[in-house]
Design brief:
The chain is of the alpha+beta class and 494 residues long. It contains eight helices and 21 strands. Helix 6 crosses helix 7 and helix 6 crosses helix 8 (470-485). The chain is globular, with a radius of gyration of 29 Å. The longest helix is centred in the middle third of the chain and has 22 residues, at 221-242. The strands form six sheets. Strands 11, 14, 17, 18, 19, 20 and 21 form a seven-stranded mixed β-sheet that branches. Strands 1-8-6-3 form a four-stranded antiparallel β-sheet, with no helix packed on it. It has three domains: 7-86 and 109-166, RNA polymerase II/Efflux pump adaptor protein, barrel-sandwich hybrid domain (OB fold (Dihydrolipoamide Acetyltransferase, E2P)), CATH 2.40.50.100; 179-233, E3-binding domain (Dihydrolipoamide Transferase), CATH 4.10.320; 273-493, Chloramphenicol Acetyltransferase (2-Layer Sandwich). A hairpin with a 4-residue loop joins strand 12 and strand 13.
Length: 494
């Protein structure tokens, strides 16, 4: 008897921060290639970073699910691998006498583990290269050691496939959708991700009333999002029933009639990756945060002179303008800690942070992103400036991980690099404030009784008015402006 060949379908895992999809940038393998356990098989671009995805199975690649440029949802098939076998299946011999036709549904079976079970355990029917199990732990996936694979029917369960009957190569298997598991044991709410719990709180959803779609009734992010969409749809439907009907002959937006075609020359472009995430985050910020903006002009001549002296003293460790402004902001947050916080909408509470996870806006070929410098308050001015430069370069090259682009508590934005004097920025949700600095121009400035040419910049602070009033916001901005104008007074803190 020939040894059965096991087929493993690897689904796109959750690559961190609750990402729901990724775009295939490049395939690193092709159909027919032999791969080993944990070998990178695809480069994908998530909403936050470009990453290589390793496959926890070894064997022969028999299918790639998705072409370059296609968006694949988390949990959807990414690659199918056939485990190596000691003997290839032989074609079924022709019967010499009458035989009974096979009953419907008796197609050749393949051993296909669940997409989230991980590689087969040692000693099973797995590939020779995967017997030891995968060493890579993918978020939301796991390595699945000791998990028993399940058996499922191959495609064409209604009868033998053409390839089986003729002895040809196996066709690409497609695993049937897994049944939706029921909820966990009575009284137990299967939620393990803090992100899922936070998302539920922010949308006012009681997780105890949800039916989890994960293994064993585990409540996943998609379950919370589906519940939120359902609530929004119900609200929209209720509102629609109270609105007056459209006049005869008119075409209402969203009606069941034919949509109005786009005008000639119109082009549509789907938002993807970082651009899509930023659009969603900024839209949410404007919906939820009652923001206000204050601004002040500051004489930056003293700051630029200090920067020149610092860079002349240590040329190999230069200090940038953004590095100095960020240092002044950190000093201001120590005096006005209300701005280093986030607002818990579900509980109507202000959550302050002792450590400052400093985000800064960076323009990249993938769109606007906000890299984060961890524990920025503990860095010296040179260290902070160096870290900002490293993060900016990594953001432009796509070398940051999803973890490097989240978890900020306060953001600075140097929009002066675009030749802009001022801007009422949008707060990076769920933070409560963002500090901006415009371009530095030579302008007339009153110094004592004289009008002199000075290097002047505009500083702005956009803040969440639920968190503080104009006194705190103005006090913080005035402190930063004083640092810009007279940095020599703060050398002991730099």
């Amino acid at each position: 008897m020939n040894e059965e060949r096991r087929v493993d379908t690897f689904a796109l895992p959750d690559l961190g921060e609750g990402l729901t999809e990724a775009e295939v940038v490049a395939w690193l393998v092709a159909v027919g290639d032999e791969i080993t356990v944990d070998q990178p098989v695809a480069e994908v671009e998530t909403a936050k970073a470009s990453v290589e995805v390793p496959c926890p199975y070894g064997g022969t690649v028999i299918a790639l699910h998705g072409s370059v440029g296609e968006v694949v949802a988390v949990g959807a098939p990414l690659i199918t691998v056939a485990a190596r076998s000691t003997a290839a299946p032989a074609p079924e011999p022709q019967a010499t006498g009458p035989r009974t036709a096979p009953a419907q549904g008796s197609a050749t079976q393949t051993t296909v583990p669940d997409a989230r079970e991980g590689p087969a355990p040692a000693g099973g029917n797995g590939a020779a290269g995967s017997e030891a199990g995968s060493g890579a732990v993918l978020v939301g996936y796991g390595t699945g050691r000791g998990t028993r694979p399940t058996r499922r029917r191959a495609p064409g369960a209604g009868g033998p496939s053409a390839s089986t009957a003729t002895g040809g190569p196996p066709t690409t298997p497609t695993a049937p959708p897994a049944p939706r598991p029921g909820p966990g044991p009575a009284g137990a709410t299967r939620v393990v991700s803090p992100l899922v719990r936070r998302l539920a709180r922010e949308n006012g959803i009681d997780v105890t009333e949800l039916r989890g779609s994960g293994e064993g009734g585990l409540i996943l992010r998609r379950d919370v999002e589906a519940s939120a969409r359902a609530a929004t749809t119900a609200t929209t439907a209720t509102t629609a029933t109270t609105e007056p009907a459209a006049a005869p002959g008119s075409t209402a937006s969203g009606s069941t009639g034919s949509a109005v075609p786009d005008a000639p020359g119109t082009r549509r472009t789907a938002l993807r990756g970082a651009h899509r995430v930023m659009a969603e985050r900024l839209s949410r910020s404007r919906r939820e945060i009652p923001e206000a903006t204050v601004w002040v002009d500051a004489d930056a001549t003293g700051m630029l002179e200090l920067r020149r002296e610092l860079n002349e003293a240590v040329p190999d460790r230069p200090v940038s303008v953004l590095g100095l402004v960020a240092r002044f902001a950190l000093l201001g947050l120590a005096r006005f800690p209300e701005l280093n916080a986030h607002f818990d909408t579900a509980r109507q509470e202000l959550v302050r942070h002792d450590a400052v996870q400093l985000g800064f806006a960076a323009q990249t070929p993938r769109g606007l992103v906000v890299p984060v410098v961890r524990d920025a308050h503990s860095l010296t001015t040179r260290e902070l400036s160096s870290r900002l430069g490293e993060r900016a370069e990594a953001a432009r090259s796509g070398g940051l991980s999803p973890a490097d682009l989240g978890g900020g508590t306060f953001t600075v934005n140097n929009y002066g690099v675009f030749g802009v004097d001022g801007s009422a920025a949008i707060i990076n949700h769920p933070e409560v404030a963002i500090l901006g600095v415009g371009r530095i121009l030579r302008r007339p400035w009153v110094v004592g009784d004289d009008v002199l040419p000075r290097q002047v910049t505009e500083l702005t602070l956009t803040f969440d008015h639920r968190v503080c009033d104009g006194g705190v916001a103005g006090g913080f901005l005035r402190w930063v402006a004083d640092c810009v104008e007279r940095p020599q007074l703060l050398l002991g803190d730099l």
